[in-house]
Amino acid sequence: MTKTIKFNPPYRADHVGSLLRPPGLQAARTAFFSGDIDKDSLTAVENEAIRHVVDIQQRAGLRAISDGEQRRTFFHVDFLEQIGGVKAELAKYEIKFRGGHKDVTLVPPVLTVTGKLVRTHGIATDDFRFLKSVVPAGLTPKVCIPSPTMLHFRGGRKGIDEAAYPDLDNFFTDLVHVYQQELAELYSLGCRYVQLDDTNLAYLCDPAHRQRVTEQGEDPNLLPALYAKLISESVKLCPDDMAIGIHLCRGNHRSAWAAEGGYEPVADIMFNECGVDTFFLEYDDARSGDFSPLRFVPKGKSVVLGVVCSKTPVLESKDSIRRRIDEATKYIPLEQCCLSPQCGFASTHEGNDLSEAEQLAKLQLVVELASEIWKD
């Protein structure tokens, strides 16, 4: 049964979650990985950084408050590698990023499934406990975790040990159980707002990535339905008062991107078969195509229009954002829409090429404009 949109959360002014790391945290992380400080010392610096980004979000006027992913190196690896049966290691896997007048190559740790998947401990639970303790009453702590699809897309069948999972159906079943258990514990701790971060549905809109998937032995035409089912099963036990959103990302590393293409190849399945409440969509430039795929969004679901760019320091004009929203509402009612930056400001610990003051100005623009457009 589709939940009733109440925008509480998601909020008319929202954001994707990650925020720039303060210089002190960058230095502490470097010191930790070089062995100069211990884990407790790093955690203390992370705690202060989280308090700092909570304050930034309050100053911007946001009601959904994340920890800015201050404890993470990558938006996905730090979470997924804590699942029993998952191994993260450096390998010859490169992601080519473009944009910002530069080309950037990222070599992230590759996640492989080496044994049966099992949740041996809470993964984001301690992080949520701390965030909740520093978010003032009346505001909503928001948890951002990687989509379960992130454990399949980049490696496919070859990234999953055949001895552990001769039948991939059992792999997906175990992965769903891990997410159901994590979400249940988060709910028990008071979490009411979760965002899944998913690059894969957006990558399946890009012909180059579709070709890579084909070469990997997967069928890009079948994956959208498979992933929609995986996500839906993972969140289906969440109570009605736990809002679940998903962010469709085209890559975000040092102000560069990794994929392009409109949402048309995945839109119908994504909007109608993916059992989440809200879709955070990147629409900051021509890479995302036009708004016509929004015609598939059913009543009762909301779209957060990411038309403010988190990759550049240039502050958009209110008129330009209003025009983009007007274009979108040719295909979806304004009442089903919200506003946000198109992505986080730091999906990897390096962050994008803008200052903290410029980041704050972007967030304030979202809040101010949302309050002018929507009166509810």
Please estimate the helix content: 25-40%
The quaternary organization reads as single chain
Largest sheet: 6 strands, parallel
Number of domains as seen in the coordinates = 1
| Distance between the ends | 24 Å
- Strand runs, count: 12
Q: Spans with pLDDT under 50 lasting ≥5 residues?
A: 1-5
Content-based structural category: alpha/beta
**Which CATH class applies here?**
Alpha Beta
If strands are numbered along the chain, what order do they take across the biggest sheet?
Answer: 7-8-9-10-11-12
CATH topology: TIM Barrel
Which CATH architecture? Alpha-Beta Barrel
Q: What share of residues are in beta strands? A: 15-25%
Figure out the total of helices: 11
User: Radius of gyration, Cα only, in angstroms?
Assistant: 19 Å
Which geometry do the CA atoms define?
Answer: globular
Question: Could you report the average pLDDT, rounded to the nearest whole number?
Answer: 91
